[in-house]
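TA notes. Do not distribute before section.
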Amino acid sequence: MKANRYLMFSMLTMVIGIQALPASSLEIDRKAYQAEYKLTGSYGTSQHLMAFDGNGHGRSEMSRNGSKNISIIDYQQRKVMVLMPGMKSAMTIPLTDDQLSSMGAISDKMKARARSLGLKTILGHPCTGTKYSLEGGVEEEIWNGNDIGGVRVYSKVVAPGAGVSEATLVKFDPSPPPAKLFTIPAGYSVN
């Protein structure tokens, strides 16, 4: 039960990260980069770091109020690693074909309900916008930077009863991230 909860959280954070990729991408981006986002909403403010090595590895790191949730996906080895820095512990969870394809299915479902918002400059980046109408009356507006390979620059989600949440690109680095970001750190126990 505990493993399933961590897996679902990890997959959710990776899907959030994957949605930061170009709209045409259904898997981990094939180019290396790092992006930092500021997230705001009714829950307050948090930070989200995304890193991709261009070889099937992605890292999602969410920080809020001193706590940090880290998920690493390895498409080649078909696994998710959930790091719990406060406990110096990690959990490795294998991914099934169904779990991997569900990430693409989420993207396919979103694309089926997409509407173009055209072009607009946001934070100095020429962007292409898309609005998605999702289940439960949820709407998401995504602006991807054309000058940075389609990486998300800004997004806004409006959910009935939950309010508005926004993600704004704070920093983009097109250089490859260090390989150690995609491994379990030394000294961690692995469950």
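Switch to the second chain here.
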Amino acid sequence: MVGLKKEGKAKQSKAKHGKALSVLKTLTTSSWTSLILNILLAFIFIKFIFYPLLNYCLHTEMPVVAVISNSMEHDSNLDDWWQTQHLFYEKKGISLEDFKTFPFKNGFKKGDLMIIKGVNIKTIKVGDVIVFKAKKQYPIIHRVIAVHYSNNQTILETKGDHNTGQIKNFQVDETSVMPQQVIGKAVLRIPLLGWIKIWFSKL
């Protein structure tokens, strides 16, 4: 009789344990399902609602750009950075005092997210940071260092703050950025948020 009671208690304990595991598995599965569903809904919202809305409001095909290189990064404060770069800029007629008035005067880092606004190329000034197309997978985001006018057309020169000079090869020619290449002008920097876009692009 005692043996039967013990056996009954053991079965009850086992049943309770099995039920608890079942509930835990259900909760876990439910949590993962909910997470995946939320990510999917967020993706749909961003791609088909939020992003097109930004396109419309900011008048550009690419309103958000993740910085994928270090070409606009400053390794030190502005005065120290200038000591390593001043010869190039002074040849272009740009002084330290000029640079201090430029947007994003301290540059920005890989992984930052930049908000881009479409603008008339005729309104772009020396010092502005623009995004432009090149013969590469991704567009370039660099600073305008000169503006030229030829045959009633505006032609820009750009340079990455971190770079020692302008890029000129079969993919990119920063000495002659044409109007049709320009996507827009950077108007806002959101630190680090661009890493999300970079990581997703590698999946």
